[in-house]
Amino acid sequence: MLGARVGGILAHAMPKLHTVRQGECLSGIARQYGFKDWTVLYDDPANAELKQRRPNPNVLCPGDLVAIPDPRPTLARRATGDWHEFAVEREEVRLKVQLMGLDGKALANQAYQLTVDGQKREGTTDGSGLVDEPVDVKTKTAELKVTLPAGEETQELTWQLNIGSLDPVTTTAGMQARLAHLQYYTGAIDGKLGPLTRGAVLAFQQCAGLDATGVPDEGTLNELKKQHDEVT
Amino acid sequence: MSDPLTNALVALTGAANQAINTLTVPPEERLIIIAEGKQFNSGDAARPWQCPQWFRTPGSERAKIIVFYDKGKPYTVGDIHKNIKQLPPIPLVDRPDGTFEYLNLDQGVRFIIKKVQDKLAFRDALLTPGAHVMYDGHARYGRGPCFGVGGLSPGEMWEEGTGNGQGKQLPLTHPNRDGIFRLGSKYIAVEAEEIKKHGYTANLLEAIDRPKDADCDKDLKPHIWELKGRTLKDIDPALFTAVRDPNPTKKWWTYWGYVDGKRKLFVVHHAGWEQTLSNPDDIGALTPTCRVFAHLGCSTYKHNFPPVRKQKQWVREGNERYAYWTTNLSDFGAAHYWLQHVLTYKKFNAFKPLEESLKYAVKQSNIMLTNDGDRCNII
User: Fold this and answer.
1) Is B24 an interface residue toward A (CB < 8 Å)?
2) pLDDT tens digit string along B301-314?
3) Number of domains in chain A
4) Residue B336 confidence (pLDDT) above 50
5) B88 vs A: CB within 8 A
6) B51: distance to nearest CA of chain A, Å?
């Protein structure tokens, strides 16, 4: 209940607002404020506008405001004079990265090494080249390594993953990051629509069979989101 | 092979959203260094093709560009090289450091293109491991690529390097950024009237010992036994102010030859590729470590292939030391077609030997040059 009786009138308190910082996602914010389920925040009417703007709750933008509702305590009746265990259910979040070769084919069944919070995990991508690992929602970085054949030699590739730092595709920084991941963009993720970014957009449009204008229109961003955010 | 760490910004996937992140393996990066040489003097027209501007437009547009006027009549790219009009545009992207890039996903290669315009940068290019160096500019009758700096004329001393663009300054200081990077034969012959026309200070070969066959440029070899010593007065009195040694009593090696059916007096010049005044800016003083050297000045197969490949012994080794030359007088067409086809080769060849892609560039360039009616091919 957001409110208190003041002088016989129900006065609604303003909800607490959280300003999103780089690297944060809704699952982590929910955890930070004691919610086991991020949907409590996402579905709160006070966040309706955020929900509409950010269809992926794990891709927020620095500066976004998230209304934090008052926590609702869960009532549990137990007898006194005894030990009771309470288990907190936590949503499992996963790190999913699809690895693609330069020839446009997924790196299926590719051995990889993922280092998260100092722990090395070894695994193999699935048939669609997907690395799929559970991670703690508070994890901010990870390192992904693969060794690939490169001509007669091998090429060891290492990605430093900054988790939760991907901005929405509708922002220039989010577009740049996706273009960089797909190898079209080589510049800094600075949110500036400069010549290098426009050139990358143009190259992407050409390869995707879109009108090559260099302008990141809605169709281009939709295609970029599809190629980057969906399993192909 | 280990690549530097690549940063990626990724999102998490939760129960209600299945969005993932896609990471594509980085392409092979290949550096192409275009060395833009001088013609003769600053007033001479530069070679007209422009990188990256021309390449960004369809060939049909490039073909309309006027490259020179003759008797008031404009001549376009398409008038000279009609096949340029069928070339597709290449979206070369400006990079913050002044270079350009082009991602060819068919090849799996990202090309980084850098332009250099002085001799020091050209020397550095030759010494850049993995680089594809292409020279486009005057061949200086086979002496080697020649450069000017900052719009200055290569000066009267470009024979040996001008010593910082200030004209007649000896001894030369090193490194110097203009003049010739020598990679020609020890002696070459140049028409006497060319010395006057192009305004340089000629270093002539005194008629004492007849030059040896092995030291002579291919054009000079057939004339060794016809060489005759002549004084400057006999050659052309105007040369007294255009030669390094104006001694009126000395004789210099000369011969009568023909150019386009006209009889011309040729004078033999010092033009060696080692131990020159330009040293260390000659092929004798350094061994290139670049992967490809395409010398696309005029008739470089005749003038520069023997000194570089045979005498210097800079020869192909595996995927290293590829070299390409021109078979005749060349203009902007050779360099233009060469770059276009290197960039647009369509077969996947990342981290593979360059041979197939270079063979493709040679073949396609030559088909177009021949169809254009150009007598020059790349070899």
Assistant:
1) yes
2) 999 999 999 999 99
3) 3
4) yes
5) no
6) 16
This model's pTM is above 0.80 = yes
Inspect the interface and report whether the beta carbons of B9 and A227 lie closer than 8 Å. no
Confidence tier at B41 by pLDDT (50, 70, 90) = low
Q: Which of residues 100-129 of B touch A (CB under 8 A)?
A: 101, 103, 105, 108, 110
Domain residues for the domain of A13 are 4-68
Where residue A6 falls among pLDDT bands split at 50, 70, 90? very low
Between positions 102 and 161 of A, the ones with CB within 8 A of B are: 102-104, 107, 130, 135, 137, 144, 148, 150-151, 153-161
A93, closest residue in chain B (CA to CA)? B14
- Average pLDDT (A108-120) is 94
Same domain, A144 and A178: no
Kindly tell me if the per-residue pLDDT of B165 is higher than 60: no
Tell whether A98 and A141 lie within a shared domain.
Answer: yes
Least Cα separation, residue B331 to chain A (angstroms): 30
A121-177 pLDDT per residue, tens: 999 999 999 999 999 988 999 999 999 887 777 889 999 999 999 999 999 999 999
Q: What is the CATH number of the domain that holds A32?
A: 3.10.350.10
Which among A94, A150, A160 is the nearest to B13, CB-wise? A94
Q: Are residues A155 and A136 in the same domain?
A: yes
- Residue that terminates a domain, selected from A135, A165, A195: A165
Judged against a pLDDT cut of 80, whether residue B76 lies above it is answered with yes
* SS3 state at A110: coil
